């Protein structure tokens, strides 16, 4: 029995390697909508840009195929010879691959930093399905090891400490493992397991005007938002060297304009170092049509009737953006990008922007989003009808009661905040906008959590979602899960017993 068990241990080890690789491959597939951002994030950290997702999937595929091959080989071998003896090379390789998987995953989490939390939300969303895969694999192993487990319950011929330990550890380990498989999906329930009724669908705010479908921070992007009938758009405001607020996200103009051609000697200068007359000479849409940065033009996802508008897009002033937004009836989320402290209008930046916003006479449709409470307090004093939104990063801790004491109208938060925090805001009627949500699974989680607004680069995709795909009551979820799990284990044991009796006759 000992030799028999020793051989089967390696089937168990190769199965663990196979399952870990399968989960890692699945995880990379689940984050498909964020592949571009993922590649850019790793590229920014390492200084080298390539398709890291494809590279990782290839790296994980090698041990996946390797482990799968030996699982099949050893399963056949143990059935014929009742024993397996992996070579020393395969033992070392399998251990190396398992350590490699764990090390690579930890490395990615460290490099990604706060952004890595999205991986946990993806795992949570697919937890029931992942658990089913784990259970099926575990039950197959339970079936294969039933003889050995039953043998452990027999009284040993010798009652030494070592022999007792060899009996108890596998029995307790098996019990704890299958208990964990049962309890995990119950303790970490997905947010689409509803405790109450489904909250209203979040209203949609197009991030930079729907940056995957239109040249960002342009009137052309606002026209796209208006055409698809989304609730509003978010844009970034900087200030020119001569004191005119304009729309631009990046510190330089290189990524989203033709500044390298028009002003080649100033291509790397700060965006805010240009006068408005020079900014108006730049084209801010050609790059989008030429580069197709998200591959959506080639997939015919971008409206062709706006191509001419995109081609001729320019950098708009804040005043121009507000005039169009007001005519189209769009909500406006204003994100402020102050200039360097050497800028001639550094001290006056927010006051100048606020004056333009007040002059637009569009107060209740304007969100003033900022980390700076002094700015929000100024808005509360000078333009009380505007919506003040306190911006919170992932690490900013403020509960619903603390926020309500500030007197601001809403929270503007990174969507990576813990689900329990977002649910607490909803339970206390705190209006919240979360940014930037580009995965349908996360959008549906946020819907179930009751957030009010979602800022996204994918407004058209979420607009077409009528209901979260996965919805189930807590009572039904718990009942179905527990009963199915226990029946599955009972079925495996009954099948094993049946074949044992048949074999003994």
Give an account of the 3D structure.
The chain has 505 residues and is α/β, with parallel strands linked by helices. The chain has 2 domains: 2-195 and 474-504, no CATH class; 203-463, TIM Barrel (Alpha-Beta Barrel). It contains 20 helices and 11 strands. It has helices spanning 2-30, 35-46, 52-81, 88-112, 117-125, 127-152, 161-187, 219-227, 259-262, 276-279, 286-291, 307-311, 318-328, 349-359, 373-382, 400-406, 419-427, 440-449, 459-463, 474-504, and strands spanning 193-194, 203-207, 232-239, 245-247, 331-336, 366-370, 387-392, 410-414, 432-435, 453-456, 472-473. The strands form 2 sheets. It has an 8-stranded parallel β-barrel, surrounded by 5 helices. Strands 1-11 form a two-stranded parallel ribbon. α1 runs antiparallel to α3 (52-81), α1 runs parallel beside α4 and α8 packs parallel to α13 (318-328). It is elongated, with a radius of gyration of 29 Å. It starts with a helix and ends with a helix.
Q: What is the number of domains?
A: 2
CATH topology tier name of the largest domain: TIM Barrel
Strand content: 5-15%
Largest sheet: 8 strands, parallel, barrel
Envelope shape: elongated
Stretches with pLDDT under 50, minimum 5 residues = 1-5
The overall strand count is: 11
Instruction: Give the helix level as a range of percent.
Output: 55-70%
What separation lies between the terminal Cα atoms? 21 Å
What is the average of the pLDDT values? 87
- Name the CATH class of the largest domain: Alpha Beta
CATH homologous superfamily grouping of the largest domain: Phosphatidylinositol (PI) phosphodiesterase
Supply the helix-strand structural class: alpha/beta
**Spatial ordering of strands, largest sheet:** 2-3-5-6-7-8-9-10
Rg over alpha carbons: 29 Å
CATH architecture classification name of the largest domain: Alpha-Beta Barrel
